[in-house]
Design a protein that fits this description.
The protein starts with a helix and ends with a strand. The chain folds into two domains: about 30 residues; about 100 residues, Immunoglobulin-like, CATH 2.60.40. The radius of gyration is 34 Å and the shape is globular. By secondary structure, it is of the alpha+beta class. Strands 1-2-6-4 form a four-stranded antiparallel sheet, with no helix packed on it. Strands 5-3-7 form a three-stranded antiparallel sheet, with no helix packed on it. The protein is about 20% helix and about 35% strand.
């Protein structure tokens, strides 16, 4: 019986030494290093303005009263406020009434235009009214002008 007690004690001691050795070897394999770094952050941003000096930001466009089979033009200035070249696109959404989108069409001259950082382009927006428009006495919609980083 005494031999069993020694054997169990020995096994426990060896197991404890093994666990300590594993813990020590694990800590020996751990290393860290701090690496200083610096860089530039890409910023993609476009501003929309009423004036060529880009001080009067555009927040809304009032198209006024339009007749069937007519067009109205608005001139805006788009500035790349980011740090990379962007390709411009425009989309409309939120038409009210929803049927207005069937009779009104918005176009512009800057589709797929590459605008370099810090540069400004004159944008001409043209709203066209269908000759067959009916049932629309007032309308509203949102215009989203997007600059996507050019590749």
């Amino acid at each position: 019986m005494a031999m069993q007690k020694v054997a169990i004690g020995t096994v426990l001691a060896v197991a404890l030494v093994g666990m300590v050795a594993i813990a020590l070897s694990a800590s020996l394999l751990t290393a860290s290093r701090t690496l200083p770094n610096s860089g530039n952050v890409k910023a993609v941003g476009v501003g929309v303005y009423w004036d060529s000096s880009c001080t009067n930001e555009t927040s809304t466009i009032n198209w006024g009263t339009l007749a069937p089979n007519s067009t109205k033009n608005v001139m805006l200035y788009i500035k790349n406020n980011g740090t990379v070249t962007v390709t411009l696109s425009m989309a409309t959404s939120g038409w009210n009434p929803a049927g207005a989108a069937s009779y009104l069409t918005l176009n512009w001259n800057c589709t797929n235009y590459n605008l370099y950082h810090g540069n400004i382009v004159t944008a001409y927006l043209t709203l066209s009214v269908s000759p067959s428009v009916s049932g629309i006495t007032s309308f509203s919609f949102d215009i989203t002008i997007t600059g996507t980083e050019s590749t």
